[in-house]
Task: inverse folding
């Protein structure tokens, strides 16, 4: 299984905090989100690809052993195109992680376990328990199969999932037709099961106001991640 981190965007909602770096490389409590993502992934996947675009030259030296995939036209499309390019590169199962999200290693382990238990018949997508309308959300039926995604009432998308090799080509075709959209709509058009991600094992930054909360939560998050 390969991991793909989607970090091509400029993070415009972060203002001057990401003036010369992608949002994933913004440092909080002594480490960037990317460093934390890398640490959680490196022993759990066969390789890591980071999709870069905005100010990519400034972070190429910070990837450790991960491989860059530079998306020069990042500002012309949404992240559906970033994921399509990554899927084109890897004929394998792909764990997808948004650049502004970190999850604990236990979340990755459980997601891989569930994917393996379903024998690759289903993709897996993470979501936060509890109905809400503030963030983009996922809906699913009684069996846990994803049926809808978007600015709807539902469970908040956690920014992590697995797209299996069995559904890779179909996903590429869907993404190619929807390059100006967000990528998670692919989960509604390929067989996908949801997995709940505990809120205390998930962090996301979208705006400067999220940074202060992240600084407060990271010590407890790190404790839960190592538990």
Result:
């Amino acid at each position: 299984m390969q991991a793909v981190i989607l970090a091509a965007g400029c993070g415009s909602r972060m203002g001057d905090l990401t003036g010369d770096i992608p949002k994933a490389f913004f440092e909080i409590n002594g480490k960037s989100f990317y460093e934390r993502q890398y640490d959680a992934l490196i022993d759990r996947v066969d390789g890591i690809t980071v999709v870069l675009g905005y100010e990519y030259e400034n972070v190429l030296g910070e990837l450790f052993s991960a491989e860059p995939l530079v998306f020069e036209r990042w500002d012309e499309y949404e992240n559906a195109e970033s994921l399509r390019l990554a899927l084109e590169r890897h004929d394998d199962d792909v764990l997808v992680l948004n650049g502004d999200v970190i999850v604990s290693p236990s979340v990755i382990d459980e997601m891989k376990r569930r994917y393996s238990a379903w024998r690759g018949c289903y993709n897996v997508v993470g979501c936060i328990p509890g109905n809400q309308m503030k963030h983009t959300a996922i809906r699913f039926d009684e069996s846990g199969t994803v049926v809808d995604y978007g600015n709807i009432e539902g469970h908040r998308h956690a920014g992590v999932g697995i797209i299996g090799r069995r559904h890779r080509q179909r996903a590429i075709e869907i993404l190619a037709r929807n390059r100006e959209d967000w990528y998670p709509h692919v989960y509604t058009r390929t067989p996908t099961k949801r997995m709940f991600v505990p809120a205390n094992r998930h962090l996301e930054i979208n705006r400067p106001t999220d940074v202060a909360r992240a600084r407060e939560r990271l010590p407890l998050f790190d404790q839960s991640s190592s538990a």
Observations:
- The two ends are 24 Å apart (CA to CA).
